[in-house]
């Protein structure tokens, strides 16, 4: 699968449900126009993690101070849009987990260099969490397109972690 095609686009996840409604679902079904999008249960962990990475990166596009933070946020938003599309969740409403919602609230409260550091920490943790999820789906997932996205995603996550850790060291001084 062409990585550029995976990163090229797709529409943003339309919206996320409030954290109070974020219960781990066996299947997530949300309205998309007149049709419904049903998400295979095995895809939900990857999409939940992606929802957090996307929402925190959308916030970083607005609040980030460092050019590295802003550039990474742009990259992450585009990637999560592509992953949602590959996973058949384009336009689906994937709820934030409670822990992710709490982290997002902390990021919303942070400003300046403290925001950048907190964003990078959250992205590192989110990517470390996402790696085994995508590795598992790449190995045993049922949807060939999503499996391909996860196969490419594992190496992308590794690259992102190198970048994020480097940016984090720069923020520390």
From TrEMBL:
Pfam family membership, one: DUF4142
Ranges where the DUF4142 domain occurs: 47-163
Domain of life: Bacteria
Upper classification of the organism: Bacteria, Pseudomonadati, Pseudomonadota, Alphaproteobacteria, Rhodobacterales
Protein name: DUF4142 domain-containing protein
UniProt cross-references to InterPro entries, sorted A to Z: DUF4142 (IPR025419), Ferritin-like (IPR012347)
């Amino acid at each position: 699968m062409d990585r550029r095609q995976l990163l090229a686009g797709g529409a943003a996840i339309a919206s996320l449900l409030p954290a109070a409604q974020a219960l781990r679902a066996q299947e997530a079904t949300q309205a998309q126009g007149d049709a419904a999008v049903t998400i295979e249960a095995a895809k939900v962990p990857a999409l939940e993690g992606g929802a957090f990475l996307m929402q925190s990166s959308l916030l970083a596009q607005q609040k980030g101070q460092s050019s590295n933070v802003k550039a990474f946020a742009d990259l992450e938003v585009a990637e999560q849009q592509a992953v949602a599309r590959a996973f058949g969740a384009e336009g689906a409403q994937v709820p934030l987990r409670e822990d992710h919602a709490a982290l997002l609230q902390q990021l919303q409260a942070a400003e300046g260099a403290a925001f950048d550091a907190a964003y990078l920490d959250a992205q590192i943790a989110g990517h470390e969490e996402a790696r085994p999820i995508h590795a598992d789906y790449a190995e045993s997932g049922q949807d060939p397109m999503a499996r391909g996205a996860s196969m490419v995603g594992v190496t992308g996550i590794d690259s992102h972690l190198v970048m994020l850790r480097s940016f984090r060291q720069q923020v520390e001084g």
